[in-house]
Amino acid sequence: MITALFMLAPGLVEVVHVAEVGATTFKPTVFGTPGCAYDHQDVATESFGVFALTLLNLVIGSSIQIEDQSGTTTLYNGTAAGTSQLINLDAFAPGSSLNDLRIKVRKGSSAPYYQPYETLATASVGAQSIYVSQIKDD
């Protein structure tokens, strides 16, 4: 969000929201002219970029669910089509709870069955690979 501060008189400032800016648009940190300053502030739910997560050693047909660690927001839900899978997720502002991921993998819909696998990760702009250790559930 870009905000304009207008100095109306000494000690009297008016704050006006100028524009919402998307993740692909240049957002200045601070700039201004005499009597006027502009700034932006990102909210915790605004995406900063892409977190490319690759899951390795998957059992084909396994269910994959990625959620925040508090379990309130599901960020991805799908089925493994191969033994490795690239999942592109949003990376949020540093400190956002949406960056704290819980990754769950399970093949329990048909034989052979596998025990649930769960791990934690932190999303950031860039890429990460995670080796999934699925154990047969005999």
Describe it for me?
The protein is built from no helices and eleven strands. It has 138 residues and is an all-beta fold. The protein folds into two domains: 39 residues, no CATH class; 85 residues, Immunoglobulin-like (Sandwich). The strands form three sheets. Strands 2-1-4-3 form a four-stranded antiparallel beta sheet, with no helix packed on it. Strand 3 and strand 4 form a beta hairpin. The model has no long low-confidence stretch (mean pLDDT 82).
Topology at a glance:
Elements: E1 2-9, E2 12-19, E3 30-33, E4 36-40, E5 47-56, E6 63-68, E7 74-79, E8 84-92, E9 100-106, E10 117-122, E11 126-131
Radius of gyration, in angstroms, nearest whole number: 22 Å
- How many helical elements? 0
Q: Which secondary-structure class do the elements indicate?
A: mainly beta
Number of domains: 2
Report the portion of residues in β strands. Answer: over 45%
Text of the CATH class of the largest domain: Mainly Beta
C-alpha end-to-end distance: 54 Å
